[in-house]
Amino acid sequence: MTGERALRVDGLVNARDLGGLRRRNGSYTPRGVFFRSENVDRVSEAGWEQIWEAGIRTVVDLRQPSERSCDVGSRPGWLTIRQVDLDGLDNEDFWSNYWDNGLKGTALYFLPHLQAMPERAGAALSAILNAPPGGVMFHCMSGRDRTGMIAMLLLRAVDADTEDIVDDYLETVRLGELRAASENQDNDENAREELCRSHGTTTENAFRSALSQLQLPAFLTLADLSEPDLEALRSWRNTIQD
Predict the structure, then answer these.
(1) Is the pLDDT of residue 1 over 70?
(2) Which of 21, 176, 199, 206 could form a disulfide with 189 if both were Cys (CB 3.0 to 4.6 A apart)?
(3) Which residue ranges form the domains of the chain, and what is each CATH number?
(4) What order do you get walking across the sheet with 56-61 strand by strand?
(5) What span, in angstroms and rounded, lies between the C-alpha atoms of 199 and 193?
(6) φ, ψ for residue 240 (rounded to 5)?
(7) CA dihedral angle for residue 105, residue 110, residue 114, residue 119, rounded to 10 degrees
(8) Nearest to 119 by CA among 83, 169, 84
(9) How far apart are CA 115 and CA 94, in angstroms?
(10) Mean pLDDT estimate for the chain
(11) How many Cβ atoms sit within 10 Å of the Cβ of residue 212?
(12) 36 forms bridges with which residues in the sheet?
C-alpha cells in the first residue's frame, strides 16, 4: 500500500498521499486530501506540474525561518503557501533537553513537544485544515519527524490503523539512502537507531510509544483549535462522512 501511495514528483523522493490507509472501522483514509513530503525547494518545473496533476494546491511549510531563508528554488504562481514554525526554538528550556543530544531527530521528542508547545502543532493543523480547496501537502526538511508528528495527529484523528500509521512513519526511515543521496548527505538512520537504543528503545518503538501514549482529546484541548477546525480534522476537510 505504501508504494501505491507514493507521489512521483521530479525533485522529491519522500512524498506520498496519506490516503489509502486502513481505518479501524474497515474503511480507508481518503486519497487526495493530505500529502506529506520533504522540502519542496528542489522540485523542478516538471515536478510542479506533477504536483498540480495530483490535485495539490497548497503547501504548508513546517520549517524554521532560518531554514526557509536558504531556499533557492521558485514556486509556481498557482500555489498557496502557508508557513508555520513548528519547532519553536525560542523555548530554550524545552530544546535544551532535545537539540544538542540529537533527540530532535527521533520520535522521542514528539509527546514532550506536543505537551510543552501544543499551540505550535495546533497552528500547523489549522493551516492545513483551513487551506483553500484542493489537496494540501505539508513538509519540513527531510519529511521525517516534524512532518511525521503532524501526520501522526492527522491519522490518529480519523482512527487510522495503528500498524498503517507506524508503517507510514517507517517508510521515511526505509527511504533513508534515497533521502541522503538527494540531499548530498550521508544516511544517518543507523546513527539515529543507535541513539534510540542508547535510550532503551528503537526508531520504530520510539514512534510506537509516542503513538500509543498520545492523548489526542487532551492535546486538542491544549492546542485550542476552534470548533470548525475540529470538525475539519475529524472529517478530513469534509471527505469523511462517518
Answers:
(1) no
(2) 176
(3) 2-234 (3.90.190.10)
(4) 16-17, 34-37, 135-139, 56-61, 80-83
(5) 10
(6) -120, 125
(7) 40
(8) 84
(9) 10
(10) 97
(11) 10
(12) 16, 138
Distance of alpha carbon 13 from alpha carbon 229, whole angstroms: 30
Is the pLDDT assigned to residue 152 strictly greater than 70? yes
Distances in Å between the alpha carbon of 110 and those of 28, 153, 215?
25, 11, 12
CA-nearest of 223, 230, 226 to 120 is: 223
The model's pLDDT over 99-145, given as tens digits with 9 standing for 90+, comes to 999 999 999 999 999 999 999 999 999 999 999 999 999 999 999 99
| Strand-pair partners of 81 | 59
Q: Which three cell numbers stand for residue 56?
A: 495539490
Alpha carbon distance 235, 240 (integer Å) = 5
Q: Tell whether the model's pLDDT for residue 3 goes beyond 80.
A: no
Alpha-carbon distances, residue 176 vs 136, 203, 228 (angstroms):
24, 13, 37
Cell digits for 188?
Answer: 544517518
Q: CB under 8 Å to 225, separation ≥6 — which residues?
A: 122, 125, 126, 233
Question: What secondary structure does DSSP assign to 88-154, as a single string?
Answer: -TT-HHHHTTTSTTSGGGSGGGHHHHHHH-HHHHHHHHHHHHTSPSSEEEEE-SSSSSHHHHHHHHH
Pull the grid cell for residue 121: 502543532
Alpha-carbon distance 227 to 234, whole Å?
11
